UniProtKB/TrEMBL annotation:
<dbReference type="GO" id="GO:0015979">
    <property type="term" value="P:photosynthesis"/>
</dbReference>
<keyword id="KW-1133">Transmembrane helix</keyword>
<protein>
    <recommendedName>
        <fullName>Photosystem I P700 chlorophyll a apoprotein A1</fullName>
    </recommendedName>
</protein>
<feature type="transmembrane region" description="Helical">
    <location>
        <begin position="72"/>
        <end position="94"/>
    </location>
</feature>
<dbReference type="Pfam" id="PF00223">
    <property type="entry name" value="PsaA_PsaB"/>
</dbReference>
<dbReference type="GO" id="GO:0009535">
    <property type="term" value="C:chloroplast thylakoid membrane"/>
</dbReference>
<dbReference type="InterPro" id="IPR001280">
    <property type="entry name" value="PSI_PsaA/B"/>
</dbReference>
<keyword id="KW-0472">Membrane</keyword>
<keyword id="KW-0812">Transmembrane</keyword>
<dbReference type="InterPro" id="IPR036408">
    <property type="entry name" value="PSI_PsaA/B_sf"/>
</dbReference>
Length: 178
């Protein structure tokens, strides 16, 4: 839920796209103080025609490193995180109220740990590694070369089109053979 809020506020109230186009001259800002009783004096010029409070949390750098290049992708990630949080809330309610496990299951620590850690660490690590190789690295290759973020292909195009990856990384043309 917290991450969903961070992605939403980054999409709605920040200058992420302007910062992404010129991160050395434009400061990251995701907060704007509204003009109530003179408090707007806290807003400063962070560059790119945006006035707000400069942030140093590192969210912009994390979003760039994970391959997010537009506010729409931030919105979609926020909605996905919110749906996932609701799904986990429902799963918790279901497991403890409708399909409550027996006491013997809680006493068998080995089966409980294996069940949860296999899904969380195993599949989570594989998914994140695949995302880094097939989405983040190619997008950051384009960003480091100075390509405008709006001209970079969408993330799913890197996953579905091996020839596009082979243009950036020639070893992808060979496939899985060493």
């Amino acid at each position: 839920l917290w991450l969903s809020g961070m992605y939403f506020h980054g999409a709605r109230f920040s200058n992420y796209e302007a910062w992404l186009s010129d991160p050395t001259h434009i400061g990251p800002s995701a907060r704007v103080v509204w003009p109530i009783v003179g408090q707007e004096i806290l807003n400063g010029d962070v560059g790119g025609g945006f006035r707000g409070i400069q942030i140093t949390s590192g969210f912009f750098q994390i979003w760039r490193a994970s391959g997010i290049t537009s506010e729409l992708q931030l919105y979609c990630t926020a909605i996905g995180a919110l749906v996932f949080a609701a799904l986990m809330l429902f799963a918790g309610w279901f497991h403890y109220h409708k399909a409550a496990p027996k006491l013997a299951w809680f006493q068998d620590v080995e089966s409980m740990l294996n069940h949860h850690l296999a899904g969380l660490l195993g599949l989570g690590s594989l998914s994140w590694a695949g995302h880094q190789v097939h989405v983040s690295l190619p997008i950051n290759q384009f960003l480091n070369a100075g390509v405008d973020p709006k001209e970079i292909p969408l993330p799913h195009e890197f996953i579905l089109n091996r020839d596009l990856l082979a243009q950036l990384y020639p070893s992808f043309a060979e496939g899985a053979t060493p």
